[in-house]
Structures are given as C-alpha cells and as structure tokens.
Design brief:
alpha+beta, 3-stranded antiparallel sheet
C-alpha cells in the first residue's frame, strides 16, 4: 500500500527528553491508510460517512465506553498503553472504561514543570510538535500542507485573518495514549472564542498526508488571546485552535486556575493564566494548532533542528517531499520565547 505512491513506512519521532529516535505504534494503521488512499483517488459516500459526527461518536462509544474486563487490569492491558500511573490523580484500578483512562487527570503541578518567565510560550498538550510559517522567506514554510489558513480560522472572520497574516504556527498532534487536557500556552485576555463545525478526519500521519488540509476541515474551537495586556505574555495576539479527530465527539471548555478544582467555560473578557487546564478532548486522537503574529515569537532551537534530523523515518517527510520530523514533548514545556 502506498501514500501517494510512496511505500508505507515507519513513522518515527524524536523524544525531547532523551534526543532519541523512537517509532510510533499507529493504531489501525493499515485500515486508516487504505481508507484515505482510496478516498483520495475516488472520494465517495462511504468516506463521507466514516468521517461524519454520527459514525465518529458511534466508534467512540464502542471503543471507549464499554466496561473493561479483567484482562485489561494491571500490566496485561492498561500496562501496555505506556501510561505513567505515578503521575495520575486516580489509580489504574479505579478506571472502569477506556474513557476513564483517556480523560484521566494528572498532578501536572508536580510532574509537568513550567518556566515561570512570562516571555516563555509553552506546549498546550502532551503531544508531538511540528513548526511552520506562512512567511514566504521563512525556512519553515509549510504553506497549504496541514491546513488552509483562511479555512482554519473561518473565512467570515476577516479581522482575525488580517491580524494573523503571514503568521508562524505550531501543530501539536495528540495520540490516543496521551493525557487529553489542553493547557493555556500563554497568558492573556480572551478576545473571541467560537466553534466551527466540520468533519472528523483521522490524525494518523498517513491520513494527514493523503487528505488535503485535514486540520482545517475538522470541527474545531478557536480562541483568540490578547497577550499584550497587564500580566500577559507580551507576544501579541495568539490563536489557540483545538481540533477534533476520529472518535473525538466533543471539546469541553473547563478552565481552572487551581488545579482542576474550579472548572468554568471560557468566555470573552476572561483573563487566562499560562499553563492552566483549559479544555478536555473526548477520547481518541486530536490536534492543537497555535498561531502567532509574524515576528513575535522565536521557537526553541532544538525543536527546529529536530524537524530536519537525519536518520528518522517520518510519514510527513515522505508526503511533503522534505525532512519533517516531529518532537515528542510534555504539556507546559517551553516551545519558544517572545521576540523583544
């Protein structure tokens, strides 16, 4: 089976803590890629049905809401997911369904340290990151690969489209085993928050390569933050875009300034502190995209260098015709700094 005629190869990434190249275990990989390869050649009703909200929610119900049997207890089942149970608030024996597992809470204030410097931008999720730009002169140009810029923000949002023209961006891909709370990457005031309806495309790397700008076609929530305010991060306007995927039925806004103790919906006019829980994805895989105004952020050098690391086999490299390797990183870890 091929991706645009390219052999179906391993998908590898770089673990930030160790610098080592690791191979991702892709769930239902061949099935997902067969669906997307066929759909690219001849999209039809079946493909539309498989990426619809109704089927996605049905798959999520079957996959995540059935009660776990004895075989899933201990190292025999839950242990294979690679979850560090020493981080979680609740022990594994309290998990009754896979939904409980994927919606777990962690002691992030202990196990996800954050640089206190207000000029630092942090990762919104435990995820795998790629960086890019819409500036023609930038060495990071990934124009019209992962998303269509206007479609991602919403064509009717002319003001925000103008504000983020030639923006720099970061794409964070969550895998099903990850901690699924999103945290605020910057501190700032909420100028706008709105939902855009859409499909439920898979975030499997092969599916992303074969689908045309899938991230801007999926259902998503867009939050616009002004960080040039008192107590803000001072990096201009930042758009945080939370994108559903296959089997993700919803994005629950549940911002809390004190651990998880006081969750509340995110609304216009609210001031959000950096590094706090903002929202929760329902189980599956999903993606966050951050947009930064041109010339306001300098991404961390190790993340830039890892993208072009030799020796790593990435589906994105094959699909986009250039080295493009993800880095696995933790929520609240540094991804860049404000340019003075």
């Amino acid at each position: 089976m091929n991706l645009r005629g390219i052999p179906l190869t391993e998908h590898q990434y770089i673990r930030r803590q160790t610098g080592e190249i690791e191979t991702e275990r892709l769930i239902a990989d061949r099935i997902v890629n067969r669906i997307y390869c066929s759909a690219r050649e001849k999209p039809g009703r079946l493909f539309e049905l498989l990426t619809s909200a109704r089927i996605s929610k049905l798959l999520g119900l079957v996959q995540f809401d059935l009660r776990l049997g004895p075989a899933w207890r201990g190292n025999g089942g839950l242990g294979r997911l690679g979850i560090d149970w020493s981080e979680t608030l609740d022990p594994p024996e309290s998990m009754r369904t896979l939904r409980d597992v994927f919606e777990r809470k962690i002691r992030y204030w202990e196990c996800r340290p954050m640089d206190a410097d207000p000029r630092v931008m942090v990762s919104p999720a435990d995820s795998r990151i790629l960086l890019g730009s819409f500036r023609e002169t930038s060495c990071l140009v990934l124009k019209e690969k992962f998303f269509d810029y206007a479609e991602l923000i919403g064509p009717e949002k002319a003001g925000w489209l103008e504000a983020f023209a030639l923006c720099d961006f970061a794409v964070f891909r969550l895998t099903p085993d990850k901690y699924h709370y999103n945290h605020t990457p910057v501190a700032g005031k909420v100028l706008d928050i709105y939902e855009i309806p859409g499909d439920y495309h898979s975030c499997n790397p092969g599916a992303v390569v074969n689908a045309v700008t899938p991230y801007s076609k999926n259902k998503r929530v867009v939050t616009i933050l002004d960080t040039d305010v008192a107590g803000g991060s001072g990096v201009g306007l930042v758009a945080m875009i939370e994108i559903v995927a296959l089997m993700i039925g919803d994005i629950v806004q549940c911002y809390s300034e004190e651990r998880y103790d006081d969750p509340k919906p995110v609304r216009k006019g609210m001031f959000l502190k950096k590094g706090m829980p903002k929202s929760l994805y329902r189980p599956g895989s999903s993606t966050d995209v951050l947009l930064f105004q041109a010339g306001r952020v300098r991404f961390s050098m190790d993340l830039l260098e890892n993208m072009h690391r030799p020796g790593a086999s990435s589906r994105f490299s094959a699909g986009f015709g250039r080295p493009l390797v993800e880095t696995d990183l933790k929520v609240r870890s540094t991804i860049g700094r404000t340019i003075p």
